[in-house]
Amino acid sequence: MDTHEVNGRDNVARNQMSVAAFGMNIVAGQERAGGGEPFRAIDPVSGSYVGSDFHAATEKDIADAVDLAVQVYNNALLTPGITVPILNTVAHFLEDWAKVILETCTGETGLSIPRLESELARTSDQLRFLARIAERGERLDAVIDQGDPEGMYPELRKVRLPIGPIAVFGASNFPLAFSVLGGDTASALAAGCPVIMKAHPAHPATSELCGRLMANAVAKCGLEPGWFSLLQGNGSSVGTQLVQEEGIKAVAFTGSLQGGRALFDIASRRLNPIPVFAEMGSLNPVFLTKASIRNRGGQIAQELAQSISGSAGQLCTKPGLIFLPEGQEGDFLENDLANAFVARPAGHLLTQTIYDTLAAQFNQTSLIDGVDTLVQQTQTSNDPGLMIPGRLFRTTITNFRTHPELQSEHFGPSAIIVTCPESEFRTIPELLEGSLTGTIFFESDESELVSELLGELIHKVGRVIGNGVPMGVRVARGMSHGGPYPATTSVRDTSVGSAAIDRFLRPVTYQNIPNELLPLSLRDNNPLGIVRQINSHLTTDSIEI
Ligand code: NAP
Predict the structure, then answer these.
(1) How far apart are CA 440 and CA 420, in angstroms?
(2) Based on the domain organization, do 204 and 308 belong to the same domain?
(3) Does the CB atom of residue 262 touch ligand 1 within 6 A?
């Protein structure tokens, strides 16, 4: 038997939940050991290896996962809602198994238990939220345009159908909410698409446990195991083969710009190119007016210091560029921010790669002409882990204009303060690359200045925020978590909120097709009871014959 074969635990996932991770891939409910060089997670706090050895999924594992996903997809294409019970069931399992998952996850990521508890709650809420949206058929966009009695115009019935098996890549910094059971997996399943998850190598045991919960949920709902697979891997080969597989119809990715762009390019070079929905790094510019600093500069400085250094700055919505007005107010804010920032403890970075990248960026940025290190946090002596003291840099708008490298994300506890005459704020957005968010702190009598700045900023971000830091991405219908490149590779989409489901649906029109051959969503008697647009009116009514 090949090393990657069943390894004595065939279908364990179906029958019982184990309290430990064994170093497994899960291919459609079947646990497999993978092959090749072993790898292990590193605890960022102790700097030591933790947990079992893992082996990357083999070429056969990947091909099998995709083939089985294609089968379940083809069988369920016209059955919207079939996957809804999986989402509710796995949310329940996640809560039942919270203790073991949190313990495993804190060991692999160094993230604190309270931080992970809130991430876990958000993850199960998100699974249930997307289940409700799918159950109501909200994103199906069912439209019926009846033909005219004279037969001049044909009858058209349109609905959105699941696009096919999805390759999902999770990020290191949200091991629950943007990982195996995270928003991309949940929205793909809510759309009716099977998921093949490429686990992040920084938290393989957390991924295995969450993957087992998902495999169990699929089995408990009486569905075929091909709806979900989990592939481990450390290095680009598993992800590359997965995206090249003919049966994969879209990619959802959360992670670095380098990773997202590489997968986008691989997907584009396929014989049949497929969409890649990559949410990548972001600078999240923040602007402060003089009046806002005069009225509450001290409080804003505290909020900014917290959001630059919280989770050691490893959040995709961390403010990375702070634009301050030149003059006394800007000087005050800079001073308050520096004091508040340096008073906060240095944090641990999630992976050696993130650590090495940030350390190199700190060196490079401090060598740029006209850029000063404003303040640096204190290093805890003899820390054995991936701890890095955070840094704030400072420069002027003139330097910023001539140094495009200041726009590379410093993923960690760091931000660049740029001073600029307040009257020139509105000229700044055109210099900026795309971001997930943009923030303006202002006072209520500053509508003219703010409206001009907002008018420019809106071209560069997916969410604009007034008087608040950009942290905390609410899971709701109104959320847009996206933005122009390089924040994402798909400017029209969001990875959070109900519209995240749309990424995995495609419109199909049925023209003059008999009622009994239509999908349930388009039949005359509306058996799903969903809202549809019939001859331009939104209604849940049936069609009278
Ligand atoms: P990462 O290194 O890009 O890894 C993400 C996943 O992609 C991993 O499974 C990785 O697997 C795979 N991957 C990366 N490069 C690949 C390649 N060339 N070919 C095939 N697979 C590849 O990301 P990370 O370290 O987790 O994330 C840090 C970044 O994510 C930050 O920049 C942060 O801003 C961003 N982030 C964004 C959001 C958002 O919503 N926009 C949320 C969280 C984080 P292998 O290592 O096995 O190749």
Answers:
(1) 14
(2) no
(3) yes
Burial (CB < 10 A; 0-12, 13-18, 19+), residue 180, is buried
Residues 465-482 have a mean pLDDT of 94
172 alpha carbon – ligand 1 mean position (Å): 7
Radius of gyration of the chain (CA): 25
* Residue type (1 letter), 34: G
Q: Where are the beta strands (DSSP E) in 421-511?
A: 435-441, 461-466, 505-511
Predicted confidence at residue 19, as pLDDT, reads: 64
Strand locations in 57-155 (E): 143-145
Contact between 500 and 183 (Cβ < 8 Å): yes
Ligand 1 closest atom vs CA 353: 25
Q: How many domains does the chain have?
A: 2
Question: Which parts of 263-377 are beta strand (E)?
Answer: 276-279, 286-288, 321-325, 347-348, 372-376
409: domain CATH number is 3.40.309.10
Q: How far is the CA of 200 from the centre of ligand 1 (A)?
A: 8
Going from the Cα of 278 to the center of ligand 1, the distance in angstroms, rounded, reads: 9
Q: How far apart are CA 514 and CA 383, in angstroms?
A: 71
Question: What is the structure's pLDDT at 12?
Answer: 39
| Alpha helices for 136-196 (secondary structure H) | 183-191
Q: Is the domain of 248 the same as that of 372?
A: no
pTM over 0.85: yes
For residue 93, CA distances in Å to 87, 133, 366 come to 10, 20, 48
Give the pair of three-digit tokens for residue 259. 């990773």
255 in ligand 1 pocket by Cβ < 6 Å? Answer: yes
Question: Among positive and negative, which fits the CA dihedral 189, 191, 195, 201?
Answer: negative
For residues 241 and 388, state if they share a domain: no
pLDDT in tens, 115-146: 999 999 999 999 999 999 999 999 999 999 99
What DSSP string describes 275-298?
-EEEE------EEE-HHHHHHHHH
pLDDT, average across residues 413-418 = 98
Same domain flag for 301 and 211: no
187 three-class SS: helix
Nearest 5°: CA angle at 233, between 229 and 235?
Answer: 145
Each residue's pLDDT tens digit, 12-45: 343 455 568 889 999 999 999 999 899 999 999 9
374 in the same domain as 318: yes
Give the whole-angstrom CA distance, residue 325 versus residue 424: 9
The CATH number given to whatever domain includes residue 172 is: 3.40.605.10
Residue 159 structure tokens: 């609905």
> Is the CB of 172 within 6 Å of ligand 1?
yes
The 10 Å CB-count burial string (b at 16+, else e) for 380-412 is eeeeebbbbbbbbbbbebebbeebeebbbbbbb
Domain hosting 377: range is 286-466
Q: What pLDDT sits at residue 545? A: 67
